[in-house]
């Protein structure tokens, strides 16, 4: 069977991409196969792959296969009941595996603060005709996919399945999730689709077989891809991609390279031997402990040291005692290439960042108090000594506020911004607005891992003020001279629903006017923030507006932002 039947669709699907209404942001289609999303343990790394594209300003459609072994298990169950091949009811049972994997990835993406919409096979609306186990796709109907892409950062769809005219489900043949991803990319008018595999591209021989002579194609033509990639990529997917003028990128998660399959062929070359990046972590609390756990399970990084106050203190992550040190100089002496700074003390964090930058190291920090003391001075120190500094997690947790502001500033002059910047306070205001007592709301924030034992920096507005200063530095290249604060107090009158802590800064006659205020809001962007979620709106001088939102507190969201900085620093 050939997927080229999709070319026979009505004219709507054959219109050139430029004639379609597209989302404002770039869209990328990522396919996660069972070789990379093997079990629930792989979901965090898959979510990281989605996050790095969202952080870069793209909207993502993630297409997922069932977890490893799940399709065979479900087929065996059906066969045990005596169901023959091409039974019309078999696909519905098999595709539960894809829908389960899509739901798991959606949960992992939501945990780090992404705005995600999972779709089922029927909701996706991929129509197909032909046999129940190897149907031919005819296109995507109903408009549900395009609407979801326009309304959400991430759409997650199950692959391998389609709906036949009779209303029953069908499979798209073995490897059919590749075909689903190609169909979606073609229907959205994109120029490429990214298939994520357990190898970083198409090789002239199987690199997993241990042959050191295996070379990778950076560019590969269709004929070579069909000859060498039949086990790696579904041939129906290659046929359709070629017919629709769609490049296919085959890569491993986290890779910026891989193989581009299209009209061009380049000789294969020996891939670079990846060496793990040496990383040190300062702090092993909520954020630092999360970083230690993620780094310990990632072969791309070598954890060389962890700075703590008390090595004997019980922790919720396993750490090799040999990695622990209480001395910042001893930590740097272990030869890290990147330092991840997640200390709870701003003064200690600032001192460590300066030492690391003076040593020419790269630093990623989640410590807004440490960075906001003198962001310009730290940037100058990094430039002087060849170090590099990133601090996305210091503002907005998992919400890419720094990246959004830089994007706005790159497009033109910025005249102001406003934001909900503190996850702890937003969580508490949400609960207070529902009628909870102050102490109850604070206890719940602590239990959820958002509030520190001493929450005064959050409640008095100092945490948000530090973030306003950092955003002002990004927007205007300078800090506001005054920054009045409103404090959230236990003895204050009851909080009404819809009150938010809003940090703002605007340019007025050459001066920066900034504040952190508690006030009722009607703006849907801020009013719709519940729990620990944060959001930012940036105003351009030309009237354009940029926004972003996400989880502003918590281990998983903040760690994701730090790890994204780490990936960027490691690639330079």
* Global outline: globular
Which regions are unreliable across 5 or more consecutive residues at pLDDT < 50? 1-5, 7-23
Q: How many individual helices?
A: 22
Radius of gyration: 25 Å
Fraction of helical residues: 25-40%
What is the CA–CA distance across the termini?
45 Å
Would you count the extended β strands for me? Answer: 23
Mean pLDDT reading: 91
Instruction: Indicate the proportion of strand residues.
Output: 15-25%
Describe the structure.
This protein is of the alpha/beta class. Helix content is 36%, strand content 21%. β1 (26-32), α2 and β2 (58-64) form a beta-alpha-beta unit. α2 (43-55) packs across α5 (96-111) and α17 packs across α18.
Summed up, what is this model?
An 8-stranded mixed sheet has the order 3-6-2-1-9-11-12-10, sandwiched between helices. A 6-stranded parallel sheet has the order 15-14-13-16-17-18, sandwiched between helices. Strands 21-20-19-22-23 form a 5-stranded antiparallel sheet. 36% of the residues lie in helices and 21% in strands.
């Amino acid at each position: 069977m050939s997927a080229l039947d999709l070319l026979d669709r009505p004219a709507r699907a054959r219109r050139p991409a430029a004639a379609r209404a597209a989302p404002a942001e770039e869209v990328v289609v990522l396919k996660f196969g069972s070789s990379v999303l093997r079990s629930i343990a792989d979901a965090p790394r898959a979510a990281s792959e989605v996050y790095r594209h969202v952080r870069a300003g793209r909207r993502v459609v993630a297409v997922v296969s069932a977890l490893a072994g799940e399709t065979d298990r479900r087929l065996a169950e059906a066969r045990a009941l005596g169901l023959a091949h091409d039974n019309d009811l078999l696909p519905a049972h098999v595709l539960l595996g894809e829908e389960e994997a899509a739901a798991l990835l959606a949960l992992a993406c939501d945990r780090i603060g992404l705005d995600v919409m999972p779709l089922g096979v029927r909701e996706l609306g991929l129509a197909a005709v032909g046999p129940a186990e190897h149907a031919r796709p005819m296109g995507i109907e109903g408009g549900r996919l395009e609407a979801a892409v326009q309304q959400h950062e991430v759409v997650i769809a199950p692959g391998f399945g389609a709906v036949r005219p009779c209303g029953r489900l069908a499979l798209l043949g073995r490897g059919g999730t590749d075909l689903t991803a190609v169909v979606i990319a073609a229907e959205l008018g994109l120029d490429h689709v990214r298939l994520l595999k357990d190898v970083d591209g198409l090789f002239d021989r199987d690199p997993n077989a241990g042959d050191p002579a295996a070379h990778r194609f950076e560019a590969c033509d269709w004929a070579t891809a069909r000859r060498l990639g039949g086990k790696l990529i579904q041939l129906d997917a290659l046929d359709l991609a070629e017919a629709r003028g769609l490049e296919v990128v085959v890569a491993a998660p986290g890779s910026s390279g891989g193989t581009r399959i299209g009209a061009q062929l380049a000789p294969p070359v020996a891939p670079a031997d990846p060496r793990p990046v040496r990383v040190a972590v300062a702090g092993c609390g909520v954020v630092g402990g999360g970083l230690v756990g993620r780094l310990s399970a990632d072969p791309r990084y070598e954890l060389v040291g962890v700075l703590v106050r008390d090595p004997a203190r019980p922790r919720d992550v396993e750490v090799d005692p040999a990695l622990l040190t209480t001395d910042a100089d001893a930590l740097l002496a272990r030869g890290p290439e990147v330092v991840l700074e997640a200390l709870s003390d701003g003064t200690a964090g600032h001192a460590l960042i300066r030492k690391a930058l003076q040593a020419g190291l790269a630093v990623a920090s989640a410590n807004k108090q440490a960075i906001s003391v003198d962001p310009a001075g730290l940037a100058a120190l990094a430039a002087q000594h060849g170090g590099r500094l990133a601090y996305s997690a210091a503002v907005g947790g998992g919400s890419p506020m720094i990246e959004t502001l830089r994007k706005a500033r790159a497009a033109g002059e910025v005249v102001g911004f406003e934001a909900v910047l503190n996850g702890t306070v937003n969580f508490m205001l949400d609960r207070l607005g529902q009628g909870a007592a102050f102490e109850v709301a604070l206890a719940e924030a602590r239990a959820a891992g958002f509030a520190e034992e001493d929450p005064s920096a959050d409640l008095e507005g100092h945490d948000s003020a530090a973030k306003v200063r950092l955003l002002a530095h990004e927007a205007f290249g300078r800090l506001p001279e005054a920054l009045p604060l409103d404090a959230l107090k236990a003895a204050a009158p009851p909080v009404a629903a819809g009150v938010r802590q809003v940090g703002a800064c605007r340019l007025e006659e050459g001066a920066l006017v900034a504040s952190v205020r508690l006030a009722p809001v009607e703006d849907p962007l801020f009013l719709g923030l519940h729990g620990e979620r944060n959001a930012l709106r940036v105003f351009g001088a030309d009237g354009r507006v940029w926004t972003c939102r996400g989880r502003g507190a918590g281990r998983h969201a903040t760690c994701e932002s730090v790890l994204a900085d780490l990936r960027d620093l490691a690639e330079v």
